[in-house]
Every structure is written in structure tokens, then in C-alpha cells.
Write a structure and sequence with these properties.
The protein is an alpha/beta fold and 281 residues long. The chain has helices at residues 2-8, 11-19, 48-66, 85-101, 119-128, 143-152, 185-193, 236-245, and strands at 29-31, 108-113, 135-140, 157-159, 169-176, 196-208, 214-218, 229-235, 248-258, 270-278.
């Protein structure tokens, strides 16, 4: 929606319109002062229809990943041209993170927390294919995503029990747009920290600098998803300090740019990612 509006009307008016869509009942993202006490009208992400839609869009995504063309494709979008600079930045940033985590390894164990049907598994394999390094890909998500994912990638390890695979040491543990859906985002971080991993990459979430963390709601109808879900917009300092208390050192911060405005939010944030390494101390 953000890009379509900006293409057809002047920038200043587009910005004003996007920030005020809530007054006419059209805000795709909206501040929820009552937090997770707000009664959502759906099952959030745990829906067969969402998993099926992602599977239907898989071929276009897979073609982009396997070709030598640009990587600017959103696996959830109907657009297949691959020219989205936001997603090009997002995927190339993952390439940097994955390459760093796999440096000097004969094989790479990669856990994707909230990984849907396995999009990052395909990209990870493509990155190290020239070096013939095996990737052992593990994807944690709702059962419906694992069922669709196995039809496409029988060699991936899909699971929906958060206690599984804690006996495996991972070179990289990634959570992309996942822990912010936890009723308490700190609990999501705690679950990640229970796994044995060298690097922890938490990405594609909205962070703010000045206000305390707050909850918002997203209504992703533009993606074809007939659902809604609550999520956290997290204060950056609070987040980094919490990870430090968990003995994870910040290696690098990444910025992907502004998002669709959140109606009535106390502060508008930016989409970011953070790469941490487990402390040896």
C-alpha cells in the first residue's frame, strides 16, 4: 500500500494520508494502547490459508534465488519482478550474516525461528553452493507451515515443538519477524537463548529510540492474508541491553528503512536487524 500511494500522489500528501488512514477505518497498522489484551478477530499466523498462499508464491521466489539476477523479492508479495530495494537489502544482509556465521565451517547448522515454509533455507543453500558446503536447515513454526514446507523441501527439518533440537549446536540462529508476536517479547528472546548457537540474528522488526516499547496491530490484507495480529514495536536500547544480560554481544546493527506508518503510535520506528554473538565470558 505504501508504495502504491507514493506512486500516484505527491510525497507530502502521501505521507499525511498514510499517517491518517485510521480515521477512515483503513489503517493497515495501528497502535493498540491495551496491548495484548485487545481481542483479535482471527488466529493470527496459525492459519492454513496463509501457509498455502506462501506455497503458491514459492516458485517465483525460488526462481529468483536460483538465478543470477537481483534479490529484491518479497516472498509474501504477488509481485515477482525482484526490484524491491527493501528486500534486496534484507536478503543481501542475510547473506553477509550467514557467510560470517559459516566462515571456515565444513557444514552449517542453521535454525530459522518462525521461518514459515523455509524461504531462508533456499537462500542459504544458494549462498554456499559454489563452495559445496552442506546446509542443515531447521525451521520452527506452526504445524501448518511445516506441512506445506515438506511438500516443497523434503530435506529440511520442520518442527513445531519449541523444545526440539536443543541437543544440536547451531552456527546461526535467526528470528525474522517472529519474536515480536510473543505476548512478552522477552519470552521469545529467552526461548532463543536456550538453544546452543554461535551467532544470533534477530531481524525485520520495528524499533524505536525515544519511547517505551508498545504494541500495535497489523491487518495484512494487501498480502492476501485474511487475518490480523498483534506485535511489539521495541525500544532499541531496551532490546540490546536485554540481549547483553543474556550474554550476547552486539556485533552489528542493520537498518532497512521506514515502514508503513502506525496509526496513532507514540513514535514511528524503522525496520532493523541485529547480529549478536554469544559471549565467551
Amino acid at each position: 500500500m505504501l508504495k502504491k500511494i507514493k506512486k500516484i500522489i505527491p510525497p507530502l500528501f502521501a505521507d499525511f494520508l498514510l499517517k491518517n488512514l485510521g480515521y477512515i477505518g483503513m489503517a493497515p497498522w495501528e497502535y493498540m494502547p491495551q496491548g495484548f489484551a485487545y481481542p483479535i478477530k482471527s488466529s493470527g499466523w496459525d492459519m492454513e490459508g496463509i501457509a498455502r498462499l506462501q506455497a503458491e508464491k514459492w516458485p517465483a521466489y525460488a526462481t529468483r534465488i536460483k538465478n543470477n539476477t537481483t534479490l529484491g523479492i518479497n516472498h509474501e508479495s504477488n509481485a515477482v519482478d525482484g526490484n524491491d530495494p527493501f528486500f534486496h537489502n534484507l536478503l543481501l544482509t542475510f547473506a553477509y550474516v550467514f557467510s560470517l556465521a559459516g566462515l571456515g565451517k565444513k557444514e552449517i547448522n542453521f535454525l530459522d525461528w518462525g521461518g514459515g515454509i523455509g524461504h531462508y533455507g533456499l537462500l542459504a543453500e544458494a549462498l554456499v553452493k559454489p563452495a559445496k558446503i552442506p546446509v542443515n536447515y531447521y525451521c520452527y513454526d506452526f504445524k501448518v507451515f511445516g506441512e506445506e514446507g515438506r511438500k516443497l523441501n523434503s530435506n529440511y527439518n520442520y518442527f513445531d515443538d519449541s523444545e526440539a533440537y536443543k541437543n544440536v549446536h547451531f552456527d546461526l540462529l535467526m528470528a525474522s519477524s517472529s519474536i515480536w508476536y510473543e505476548e512478552k517479547w522477552q519470552n521469545g528472546v529467552d526461548k532463543l537463548c536456550e538453544y546452543s548457537s554461535d551467532y544470533l540474528y534477530i531481524t525485520r522488526m520495528i524499533f524505536i529510540s525515544d519511547q517505551p516499547s508498545f504494541v500495535a496491530i497489523q491487518r495484512p490484507k494487501q498480502m492476501g492474508y485474511d487475518t490480523e495480529y498483534l506485535f511489539w514495536v521495541i525500544n532499541k536500547t531496551e532490546f540490546v541491553e536485554y540481549l547483553a544480560d543474556k550474554k550476547f554481544d552486539l556485533i552489528r546493527e542493520f537498518e532497512f528503512g521506514p515502514t508503513t506508518p502506525i496509526f496513532k503510535a507514540p513514535e514511528q520506528g524503522t525496520m532493523k536487524g541485529f547480529l549478536f554473538k554469544r559471549s565467551n565470558s
